[in-house]
Design brief:
The structure holds 2 protein chains of 2 kinds. By secondary structure, chain A is α+β, with helices and mostly antiparallel strands. Chain A has 10 helices and 10 strands. Chain B is an alpha/beta fold. Chain B has one domain: HUPs (Rossmann fold). Chain B contains 7 helices and 11 strands. In chain B, strands 9-8-7-10-6-1-4-5-11 form a 9-stranded mixed β-sheet, sandwiched between helices. Chain B has a two-stranded antiparallel sheet with strand order 2-3. In chain B, helix 2 crosses helix 5 and helix 3 crosses helix 4. Classes of the chains: A alpha+beta, B alpha/beta. Chains A and B meet through helix 1 of A and helix 2 and helix 5 of B.
Chain lengths: 390, 266
């Protein structure tokens, strides 16, 4: 067991930190306040290879691994959770399922533009009646000659409106239950596809979260991702990977709050001494840091396990499931981030409750990590099932 | 065509500056960075690479840890690195350093359309002497303080930034240009670049590599070959609080003139 990062990872962390500090942090407050999608940052992320980190150079990726990707989301989210989730949803929920399930033609058609960041990707599974119960899909897909016709509505779709490529799930056989769900690669310009209302959210307010509407949406037959009826399996596998991205986002939010609080308590004076001199502050920060450090180990470990899985699959072997590892990483990191950011606001006192300081934003941003890409309750279900506790 | 960029690893003075009891910098306890002006030179070279597809070689003289800095420059897009490193080179002043780097560049070979780029000066010594001295030793035309560089064929047009204006100079390649921060905004490493950097070559030129160059002689390199003698180095005392006069009226101006006159400044 080696807890040391490789030379590549150390260099990447240095790059991520410099980029986040210089390019992401100065915009974080404005992006939140104005609920504005930071397109200018996405263009810079694209230029420096952030939009295709864990994919082979053959498809235009950076040739990195899952840990390198997780660390990027972590460092970006330290400064701005909105920016973190843009990269996470794009990478884990759109690029990864195409890379892992697509035909060679689909990969060559879609991955170069996605991995270079020329195009942004998104994922449409959730529906008004199918959230945690993702099997309850109402969107339908009917094969008519050389194309499928999709009808239905998706909600809470991250990157919607800014994304050009969407992985959409729909029922091709209603009678078959989860085995009747199929996955499709849908382009924003396909006839019958449109983006609906944008949600007003508590946190990650710069991230675009919208409804997707498919009204007799025409999707070419060759855009079926994987086989018919395999959509639910693709969705679950994709979410396993996505959870590592969200766990990294939560990790970054919590670590960012710890860093900001350490700076603040060394400046703020009450009762004639710095807050940092008070034992309560010291104990709080010790606990906060310890929780985030534990979260980091779980997240990095899950990332390495997914990497081993991907490498095995690429070598034509059966990879070992990392599902429970991803669930534990997300569960722990999300709950740690919520707890740590709440404590950070408390240490800041009244100023922490104002929008003049970043910790209230971090507290609002942290909450979503306990909900999206599988609630904490779903993570517990996955972990318990993995333990054989039924 | 190739662009050779000379770079130096320097202590990061934006953090805490550590000074030894004898007044010299405690380099071991400080973080290091690539000298900021050198980063502008690297960026200028990479822009030329973007435009022309030329090769960019980054050259540094220093101890083995400077290899890490060269790797970062390769991750930004440079093609090859050269680390000039050897005990014989230790303690070199600007004269000896430029002697050794010039020999290193000779070893790489300068062709008709090549350019050597340097930062204007390093933040640790602030002499701005090494670049010009390398040019002299290589018998290259030099243009210092470049704020804008345009290359067309074998002619490079450089806008020099001087204290009171700009001077535009046309120079034929091969030549040496020293760069200032106004020239450009250095790019970051890229994610893919980090991975590629480990596949790119970094050569080490030691004393044996360079010993046959006419510039290299044990009396002209290292501490022995350095004519500079440091008598004393010290941390200057902080300046006192200045006196502020507010207002744009005649009385304020007269007050200013009186104060300056009293101090014999005017």
């Amino acid at each position: 067991m080696d807890f040391n990062l490789s030379q590549e990872h150390l260099m990447l962390r240095d790059l991520y930190r410099k980029f986040a500090e210089n390019e992401v942090k100065p915009l974080a407050e404005e992006v939140d306040e104005e609920e504005r999608f930071p397109m200018e940052t996405v263009k810079k992320l694209a230029r420096y290879g952030f939009m295709g980190i864990p994919f082979p150079t053959k498809y235009g990726g950076a040739g990195g691994d899952i840990l390198a990707y997780a660390m990027a989301v972590e460092e970006l989210s330290k400064c701005c959770a909105t920016t973190g989730v843009i990269v996470s949803a794009h990478t884990s929920l759109c690029c990864a399922p195409i890379f892992e399930n697509g035909t060679e033609e689909q990969k060559m058609k879609y991955l170069p533009a996605l991995l270079s960041g020329e195009k942004i990707g998104a994922f449409g599974l959730t529906e008004p009646g199918a959230g945690t119960d993702a099997a309850g899909q109402q969107t339908t897909a009917v094969l008519e000659g050389d194309h499928y016709v999709l009808n239905g509505t998706k909600i809470f779709i991250t990157n919607a409106g800014y994304a050009s490529v969407y992985i959409i799930f729909a029922m091709t056989d209603k009678a078959a239950g989860t085995k009747g769900i199929s996955a499709f690669i849908v382009e924003k310009d396909f006839p019958g596809f449109s983006v609906g209302k944008k949600e007003k959210k508590m946190g990650i307010r710069g991230s675009a979260t919208c409804e997707l509407i498919m009204e007799n949406c025409i999707v070419p037959k060759e855009n079926l991702l994987g086989k018919e009826g395999k959509g639910f399996a693709i969705a679950m596998k994709t979410l396993d990977g996505g959870r590592i991205g969200i766990a990294s986002q939560a990790l970054g939010i919590g670590e960012g709050a710890v860093e900001e609080t350490i700076k603040y308590v060394q400046e703020r004076k009450q009762f004639g001494k710095r807050l940092s001199q008070m034992q309560n502050t010291q104990f709080q920060l010790a606990d906060m840091h310890t929780r985030m450090k534990a979260a980091q180990f779980l997240v990095y470990s899950a990332a390495c396990k997914k990497q081993a899985y991907v490498e095995a699959e690429m070598a034509g072997k059966k990879g070992e499931s990392y599902s429970a590892d991803a669930a534990m990483a997300k569960l722990f990191a999300a709950e740690a981030a919520s707890d740590v950011t709440r404590r950070a606001v408390q240490l800041y006192g009244g100023y922490g409750y104002t929008r003049e300081y970043p910790v209230e934003r971090m507290m609002r941003d942290a909450k979503i990590t306990e909900i999206y890409e599988g609630t904490s309750e779903v993570q517990r279900m996955v972990i318990a099932a993995n333990l054989g506790v039924k | 065509m190739k662009v050779i960029v000379c770079v130096k690893q320097v202590p990061d003075t934006s953090g805490k500056v550590a000074v030894n009891p004898d007044g010299t910098l405690n380099r071991a306890s400080m973080q290091t960075i690539t000298n900021p002006d050198d980063m502008n030179a690297v960026e200028a070279a990479l822009k030329l690479k973007d435009e022309t597809g030329c090769k960019v070689v980054v050259v540094s003289m220093g101890p083995p840890p400077a290899m890490g800095m060269l790797r970062e420059l390769l991750a930004m897009g440079a093609d090859e690195g050269v680390l000039i490193s050897g005990r014989e080179f230790g303690g070199s002043d600007t004269y000896a350093t430029s002697q050794i780097i010039a020999a290193g560049i000779n070893h790489l070979g300068i062709e008709k359309d090549d350019i050597v780029m340097c930062g204007r000066q390093a933040i640790d010594g602030d002499t701005a002497q090494v670049g010009p001295q390398i040019a002299e030793k290589l018998h290259l035309p030099q243009v210092t303080y470049a704020a804008k560089i345009e290359k067309e064929g074998d002619t490079v047009t450089v806008q020099r930034m001087l204290e009171d204006g700009y001077m535009t100079v046309k120079v034929q390649t091969p030549c040496l240009i020293t760069c200032i921060k106004e020239l450009n905004e250095p790019r970051y490493m890229s994610v893919g670049g980090v991975y590629e950097s480990f596949k790119k070559p970094i050569a080490v030129f030691d004393f044996n590599t360079l010993k046959d160059d006419p510039l290299i002689d044990l009396t002209t390199i290292g501490l022995k070959g350095s004519p500079t003698n440091i008598f004393k180095s010290f941390t200057p005392p902080p300046k006192g609080v200045g006196q502020m006069l507010e207002g744009a009226d005649k009385a304020t101006c007269e007050g200013l003139a009186e104060t300056l006159a009293a101090k014999h400044i005017i």
